[in-house]
Write a structure and sequence with these properties.
The complex is a heterodimer. By secondary structure, chain A is mainly α. Chain A has one domain. Helix content of chain A is 71%, strand content 1%. In chain A, strands 1-2 form a two-stranded antiparallel sheet. In chain A, a hairpin with a 5-residue loop joins β1 and β2. The termini of chain A are far apart. The C terminus of chain A is likely disordered. By secondary structure, chain B is mostly helical. The radius of gyration of chain B is 20 Å and the shape is globular. Chain B has one domain. Classes of the chains: A mainly alpha, B mainly alpha. The interface between A and B is large, with 57 and 53 residues.
């Protein structure tokens, strides 16, 4: 057992530890805040708990996409394809109207919600590897386009292969989680009315995902992702296996998308191809970028901001906006529906973030430094130094004379 | 199933008209990519804006199908030029406010900004004409649109139909293509563009204003997309805020297929994609009738993936993109 030499406790370690404590503090505060939401919601009579559940599903998606884009630096524009795969695999396994169940191909065991969710998780990861393996050699922007193409093909396939997938109408009657019996005769149910229980389930899943992602990020694999993101050549010469590292990022990212898909499928009990579109992928990307690429807490906040605008604020702010329109007698404001501004707002978020604050609202320190354009001043300064050196070495014209 | 030559030729004709539109859009991708190595994701939306502006100009001019032929032709020509100027201006503006600041940023930054712009433009189109498909003012009467020029002009006795509108699409496209190649290969600005594409720093040292040259490439690429937008409005007889996405991606596939950065490659790829599009629309459902009919995007995106994975330099591209 080697004892830690005293010399290694430098100020850097201190800073890291302080950072870690700060993170833990925020995490605990965040969980307390989340725990209060249902009570506040019912106490104030807001009744918006139903909106919170998709918000959390999307935050899980954003955390997963952050693995791919933020940690490993691979732009994935077809991220929702894996969501669709997760949701459909849940539907194929559990819905009584699925062809596979009707033909008796699915063992009884897999027809439950939990096993189906696990299968959805794994299948999404498998597809992540399948699409990643041939394409990860491509340069970043080509990879983005390939994933975009894949993200279009998957929903298209589910629309067209109507014999299996129900076509545009999709598959209904997806299994919900079974009730959990409690001592004393009560039980935790997950039917459509039990929003509270669904809320807790999704929060629990979100915190679990956060924990897993954080552990992976701090592992050897997580460090390899950052190394690959920052300099592939340097990373590979340090012994990082580029393809395997990227494939892990792709597969893990995809798996969380599939995971979110199967939970969402269980929550709304129906899946159809139009649930997700290209814009959904971009909305998730906007969540990641707004919050801060590579900083998972930033991503959670970014996801929260964008999703709460999308699902809650846009509705709630319409009334005050119309009221202002009435006072000012502006028809434009009186009739405006904030829902119609969604694309504008997401687009602006992407553009402004890239131009003004590429690290996001809450940048991770490394990622921020990396996304900034190369500093022109430094090269000028370096040139200046070279010039100065030469001046010192060579006598100037005046001295020579 | 017997091979039906007439059907095959008919679909080929449709494919060539699609191809003309796609080629015009693909040129914009390839021009910009050749110079700044940026996939201008907003290009499809620039095309869509051209289509919307065309309808607006025709509304302003106020011609209808009742107007004199000269007035209609004049209005359409005006709309074409206006749409080219408008789309070119938008593309230039996007480069000026966003991409130019991101020239030295990592490759993904301008791509993400481009996606942002494509969303912004889509939302502007929704404000402009709503989110439902818009039918343009019917300035070309239906019987003239669908006049079969093979029988009416050439007196051929055939089942094939080349509608006047198909003919017009190709008729408008060809001078634009010739004009472009004249511009790129015969003018000083064109030479500056080619020099900048080869080596930006060396071009700057030779006294070329690199930012202006890149701006010109965006302007011209946008103008071509605007022309395609004008053609698309009257060929499809409908426009929608989302149309840029599919057309943009098809055109990008065409540019990649031909060899991105290569102008003749983009045209070749455009026509190939147009033909594949028409064939897939026309034939796939005959083979698998019990499955859905919307296979074309799957076919074309699948092709895109295959080309990028197995031959990223495309059919004509000599430069092999670095695959680090």
């Amino acid at each position: 057992m080697v004892s830690t030499p005293a010399a290694s406790t430098t100020w850097e370690d201190d800073a890291d530890q302080r950072q870690a404590w700060r993170e833990r503090l925020w995490l605990i505060l965040g969980i307390i805040a989340l725990a209060l939401v249902p009570f506040v919601d019912s106490a104030l009579g807001i009744n918006r708990l139903g909106s919170w559940i998709p918000i959390f599903v999307f935050i899980i998606l954003a955390m997963g996409l952050n693995i791919v884009v933020g940690y490993a630096g691979l732009l994935d524009l077809g991220y929702v394809a894996f969501f669709v795969i997760g949701a459909y695999s849940c539907a194929f396994l559990t819905s009584p109207s699925s062809v596979f169940v009707q033909n008796g191909w699915i063992p009884e065991f897999f027809q439950g919600f939990w096993p189906a969710m696990a299968v959805g998780w794994v299948l999404a990861a498998v597809f992540g590897v399948l699409i990643g393996a041939p394409t990860l050699r491509l340069r970043g922007d080509y990879l983005a386009i390939v994933t975009l193409g894949f993200g279009e093909i998957v929903p298209d396939f589910f629309i067209n292969a109507a014999a299996i997938t129900g076509g545009p109408n999709g598959i209904g009657q997806i299994a919900r989680p079974p009730s959990i019996p409690l001592p004393g005769g009560n039980s935790i149910n997950f039917s459509s009315g039990d929003l509270d229980n669904w809320y807790w389930l999704v929060v629990a899943v979100g915190v679990l995902s956060l924990f897993i992602i954080n552990r992976v990020y701090k592992s050897r694999l997580g460090r390899a992702w950052q190394a690959v993101r920052e300099d592939e050549v340097a990373a590979s010469s340090m012994g990082v296996n580029l393809v395997r590292t990227k494939l892990w990022a792709f597969a893990l990212g995809a798996s969380f998308s599939g995971f979110a898909g199967s939970i969402y499928g269980g929550y709304i009990t129906v899946v159809y191809p139009d649930q997700v579109q290209f814009s959904t992928s971009i909305i998730i990307l906007a969540m990641v970028i707004l919050g801060g690429l590579g900083n998972i807490y930033g991503v959670i906040i970014g996801g929260f901001l964008i999703q709460s605008f999308d699902r809650v604020l846009a509705d709630e702010l319409n009334a005050p906006l119309h009221w202002i329109g009435d006072r000012l007698n502006l028809d434009f404001l009186r009739e405006h529906d904030l829902q119609s501004d969604r694309f504008l707002i997401f687009g602006l978020a992407l553009v402004l973030m890239m131009v003004l604050r590429p690290g996001g609202l809450f940048p991770s320190r490394q990622r921020a430094a990396e996304m900034r354009p190369e500093d022109q001043d430094i090269t000028v300064q370096e040139q200046q130094e070279m010039y100065d050196v030469r001046q010192d070495d060579e006598p100037s014209a005046g001295e020579r004379a | 199933m017997d091979f039906n030559l007439d059907l095959f030729l008919q679909i080929l004709i449709i494919g060539i008209t699609y191809g003309a539109m796609i080629a015009l859009i693909a040129l914009g991708y390839t021009l910009v990519y050749g110079i700044v190595e940026l996939i201008n994701f907003a290009h499809g939306e620039v095309f869509m804006m051209g289509a919307f502006f065309t309808m607006q100009v025709v509304l302003w001019v106020g011609v209808t199908s009742e107007s004199a032929t000269v007035a209609v032709v004049g209005a359409l020509a005006l709309a074409l030029l206006a749409a080219m100027a408008f789309s070119g201006g938008i593309n230039y503006f996007i480069d000026r406010v966003a991409y130019r600041r991101l020239r030295n940023a990592p490759r993904l930054a301008p791509l993400i900004a481009a996606i942002g712009f494509s969303f912004i433009l889509q939302n502007i189109a929704i404000y402009w004409r709503g989110s439902n498909p818009v039918t343009p003012e019917a300035v070309i009467p239906l019987e003239i649109r669908s006049l079969n020029i093979l029988t009416a002009w050439f007196g051929l006795d055939t089942n094939l139909r080349v509608r006047l509108i198909d003919f017009l699409v190709v008729l408008v496209t060809i001078p634009i293509l010739i004009g472009l190649s004249w511009f790129v290969y015969r003018t000083r600005t064109g030479a500056a563009m080619r020099a900048t594409a080869q080596d930006r720093e060396a071009a700057a040292l030779m006294g070329i204003d690199v930012n202006r040259t890149i701006g010109t490439a965006f302007l011209i690429g946008g103008a071509l997309a605007g022309a395609a937008g004008m053609i698309a409005v009257y060929y499809l007889n409908s426009a929608r805020f989302q149309m840029g996405f599919q057309y943009g991606l098809f055109a990008f596939t065409a540019a990649v297929l031909g060899g991105i950065g290569n102008l003749s490659g983009a045209v070749l790829g455009g026509f190939l994609i147009g033909i594949i599009w028409a064939m897939s629309d026309g034939f796939i459902r005959q083979f698998i009738p019990e499955w859905g009919a919307q296979w074309t995007p799957t076919v074309i995106f699948g092709l895109l993936i295959l080309v990028l994975v197995f031959r990223p330099s495309g059919l004509l591209g000599e430069q092999v993109p670095d695959r680090a």
